[in-house]
Design goal:
This is Type-F conjugative transfer system protein TraW. With 206 residues, this protein is an alpha/beta fold. Helix content is 32%, strand content 22%. The longest helix has 18 residues, at 47-64. It is extended, with a radius of gyration of 34 Å.
Length: 206
Amino acid sequence: MLASCLAAAGPARARDYGQQGALFPVVEADLLSVIHKRLTAMQASGEIDRANRQLAERTAAQVRRPAPVPGIGRAAEERRWTFDPTITVNADLRDARGRVVVPAGTRVNPLDTVPLRQRLVFLDGDDEGQVAWAMGATTALNAKLILVSGSPFALMKAEQRRFYFDQKGTLTRHFGIRAVPAVVEQQGRTLAVRELVLRGTKGGRK
């Protein structure tokens, strides 16, 4: 029936109904051209140079004085605990030839191969009492001084001693340290961690 109806309708004819309303050309801006023009204008106005200087200044300031490790205060009571660095290998460790040297499930203590030869001393670099204590109680040979706040560069210049910084609290979080000064040192195949109360010193800020 459908075929009969189509046959009876005769051939289809196209008609031109003319223009219905206004027509507008489609204009798509070249995105790369727009970006190029914007950058050219920024360069000409000095905006790019200003932005680069500001970025360099912010970066230098962050290097000179990193953001303090959050949640670390001055020790009000002494704490001591033992930290076991032993880990369990999750997957086979292989050498360059593909041979298994440490099978999965093996418990490995890093101290067996890389002993901690220097104490790790964590302190607030803005606390004059802690800095004075660290300088008097340690030497460059037996301890590494690690800041949780303050400027390592300013202290290196003032004390003529190398200072490090616990970026983003990686080490203090790893050892469970909540207050400073704190000391981490090796005892056999474990690490002894202590948070110390400094007697006779005030928590003054520089």
